[in-house]
Automatic annotation (TrEMBL):
It comes from the Eukaryota. GO terms for cellular component: ciliary basal body; intraciliary transport particle B. It comes from Onychostoma macrolepis. Gene3D superfamilies: Intraflagellar transport protein 81, N-terminal domain. This is Intraflagellar transport protein 81 homolog. Keywords: Acetylation, Cell projection, Cilium, Cilium biogenesis/degradation, Coiled coil, Cytoplasm, Cytoskeleton, Differentiation, Phosphoprotein, Spermatogenesis. One of its GO terms (molecular function) is tubulin binding. Signal peptide: none annotated. One of its GO terms (biological process) is cell differentiation. Residues 168-253, 309-382, 411-452, 536-563 form a coiled coil. InterPro entries: IFT81 (IPR029600), IFT81_CH (IPR041146), IFT81_N_sf (IPR043016). The lineage of its organism: Eukaryota, Metazoa, Chordata, Craniata, Vertebrata. Residues 3-126 form the IFT81 calponin homology domain.
Amino acid sequence: MSEQLKFIVEQLNREPFKKNFNLITFDSLEPMQLLQTLNDVLAEIDPKQAIDIREEMPEQTAKRMFTLLAMLKYKPPGGMSEASSFRQGLVAGSKPVVHPILHWLLQRIPELKKRAYLARFLVKLEIPAEFIQDDIIAETYHQYEELVEGFKNIHKECEQLKSSGFSTAEIRRDIVAMEEEKDQLIKRVERLKKRVEAVSNHQRMLELARQLRVEKEREESLAHQKQEQKNQLFQAEQRLQRCQIQLKDLQQAAADEKPESLMKRLEEDIKFNSYMVSEKLPRELENMRKVVQYLQKVASEPAMGQAELRELEDKIRETNTEINHLIEKRMMRNDPMDDKLSLFRQQAAIIVRKKETKVEELQEAREELAAVERELNMKSSQARERGGAELIRGDEFKRYVAKMRGKSSTYKKKRQEIAELKVEYGVLQRTEEILRERLTAGQQQLQSLEAQRGISGFSDTQEELERVSAIKSELDEMKGRTLDDMSEMVKKLNSVIAEKKSALSPLIKDLRALRQEHAELAPEYEQKKTQYDTCSAGLESNRSKLEQEVRMLREETAQEESRYYHINCMREIIESQMQRAADQSKINQSMDLQVRRTALREKYIANTAEQESLGKVLRQQVKQVRENQEPNMRQMKMWKDLETLLECKKQCYLKAQSQAPIGHVIQDVGKDMLVL
């Protein structure tokens, strides 16, 4: 619980909440402040929840929070059986209810934000069936469903694009780089075309080169197909061997199986199924029915206010105190026969709990085994449909790991060689710079000497002539060497293919012998493996049994310790009460009046006398009020009539003032006259 509070306080002190809490201030929050903090966290997830709960009724706040938590798929710690207490605790702002909600929300705010955003569009509107019969409403609802499905598809595509790792800037850079490479390739092709056009019979050479490229591509595709077929053949042989091994195992199991063992296994299955049908499932069904009835009762009752909640809390407290008194009486009675029966009851309860836990573990193991088998079959079928390889197991996986280790060591060596080559490249680059500087200095010196002798540009002209002559000789050699190279290349390819075939033939023979040996050793390996798995499963089951017994003993120890501490606390409370009663009796028996006045009895007597005198005064006041009620009511009625009369006179006077041009009013003593 302390770790949970630390996490909540740490998260609330960060962005975007910035609550500036510590453990003491957070733990001392009032229920209304705690609910406001919870509402702030919900508002961060869904902005529509940003409301001051002081301006809202408690029932509306609870309903709004329940709806949002259900949409976010929050499950209360107690499950459906504690739904009513969870609802009451949330309405009252109880810490044991609100703290787990805050801890759950603050752990997964980004995920819940996404879920709340999607719920705005994916939670469908509920329309009564009688309204759906209208054609316009039905068509509109159908369009609404199509828009929801379209939103789902668009959101999936958006998430896939976000998770793919691509960005628009990188794509633009790649496009620009590819366009530059395209321009460079176009320029190179144009230069090569210009160089080849000068060669005679270049079309024939290009055609032969194209055919050679096509044949090479065809050879690569055939080699790839051959490799794929070899892999498929190898996989088929492996599957066949595994199936043969499984068939042998099944035949051996069927041959070694005795009728007694089969009957024993069937009896165990029948016992388990009969227990499930007669005891476990009816009990669970009855519990579920009680929960449903309780939930229906809660749903049918009107929403409770604060006064009703306080009344229920008071009843719960009274019931708890009665239970504690009954437990104390039972413990004080301490009947030895009941102790023996309680011991037997505890043992029976422990055995029942162990039986239920074992049945649940067996059921879970069966369900897990079925789920794993279904998943394995599905993955195997998907792998077969996609043409993938079978799962690697046993020695194959060890060989694969050894192969990967060898590749890793080779990779490390190559990486070290690359680092050395990089260092050597840096040295050579520096040497090249130095030589270029020397060449530049020598050329400048040569040009100055040519200028002194009057033959400027002689070295450049000589270099140009040598370069042109070298290009011409290369072109001449290329013309005569192209066809010879092509024929020589074809001969080399044929000789290489023949060498590869001759080199592979002894390896194929060795491979066949190794396959035969593997087929002979595989059944023995599978047999040893099954023996090992059986022994391992037995040891594991024994270990789980021992762990369960240790867990049960620890729980019993914890219960006894709590009972011991509870008894000690009750003993200390009773001793303190007895000591207090003895002190009061001593004070009452004392002869000193000053000491006796400090006794609780004297104080209670004085308070009682004071309250009785106050009650007499209040009763006298009530009597006076009842006696004067009728005269006061008559007087109040007369004052109201007088007020009505004066108001009527005021209205008449104002009306007369507004009609003054028609006539005039003559006022005399005690009377008014209107003359027209």
